[in-house]
Design a protein that fits this description.
The chain is an all-alpha fold. It has one domain. Helix content is about 60%, strand content about 0%. Helix 1 runs antiparallel to helix 2, helix 1 runs antiparallel to helix 9 and helix 6 crosses helix 9.
Length: about 240
């Protein structure tokens, strides 16, 4: 099992354990206000909704951690054992490397632009291998299926997701939003205080949350598979530099 898959499974296990807990609470609620063993007071309907809302945060955490690990795996492969030179990288990944080294995505004054250009020049003149760098992911809180597709294109490969999974992630799930769009929006609204936790989970059932989790996980699992294939086939390198 690859590090990407094991990391994904570890985070997924946390989400599923929490959903099992919520399922047990909902089952008990069918026979009256649920109560934790040893607790003096039962769980109120408001508290139950607050607990349900936390699933959106956990699902978004799964999405962001998965994509962070995928991008880190790409940069780790590019700088592995000082093996690869910038000229070995694919055109797409080389653009990302230059973007970081030359700081082309930052607002710089003239002196800082020159400093960054010299840093890039010195690296190339000295024929140094690819050093550690971080792929720019953009602002936080923005991961959904569209941004995942966009970052994949930036890296030079097309996500190949099975038709049923692709259809499910693009289909409206709630409020005219697909599953990942909904997770992103609700996470951001909760994080910025524009909606309360109790409001967020009004009329929500555990079955609905599990359905949302399943659609999210099915998509992410295939994304992880695509990144693994990209790395295993050395697609981050120029075709002529890929090991046989």
């Amino acid at each position: 099992m690859s590090a990407l898959v094991s990391g994904f499974q570890e985070r997924l296990g946390e989400v599923e354990a929490y959903l099992e807990f919520l399922s047990a609470i909902e089952l008990r609620a069918q026979h009256g206000p649920p109560k934790l063993e040893g607790a003096e007071h039962p769980i109120t309907a408001q508290q139950q909704r607050i607990l349900y809302s936390s699933v959106y945060l956990q699902l978004y955490n799964l999405v962001e951690s998965t994509m962070s690990r995928c991008l880190e795996a790409v940069t780790e492969a590019a700088k592995e054992s000082n093996r690869w030179m910038p000229s070995d990288l694919s055109q797409s990944l080389r653009r990302e490397w230059v973007r970081v080294i030359a700081r082309t995505n930052e607002e710089l004054n003239a002196d800082h632009r020159l400093e960054s250009a010299l840093r890039l020049c010195d690296h190339l003149v000295a024929a140094l291998p690819v050093a550690e760098f971080t792929i720019d992911k953009g602002g936080g809180g923005n991961w959904d299926d569209q941004s995942i597709e966009a970052i994949s294109k930036r890296l030079g490969f097309q996500l190949v997701v099975s038709a049923p999974v692709y259809s499910a992630i693009k289909r409206r799930f709630q409020d005219d939003l697909g599953p990942l769009e909904l997770v992103r929006q609700l996470r951001n609204r909760l994080a910025h205080g524009s909606i309360s936790f109790a409001q967020c989970a009004e009329d929500v059932t555990v079955a609905r949350l599990v359905d949302l989790k399943d659609k999210t996980v099915d998509y992410l699992r295939e994304v992880v598979g695509c990144f693994n294939a990209y790395l295993d086939s050395f697609e981050y390198l120029l075709p002529e530099r890929r090991p046989a």
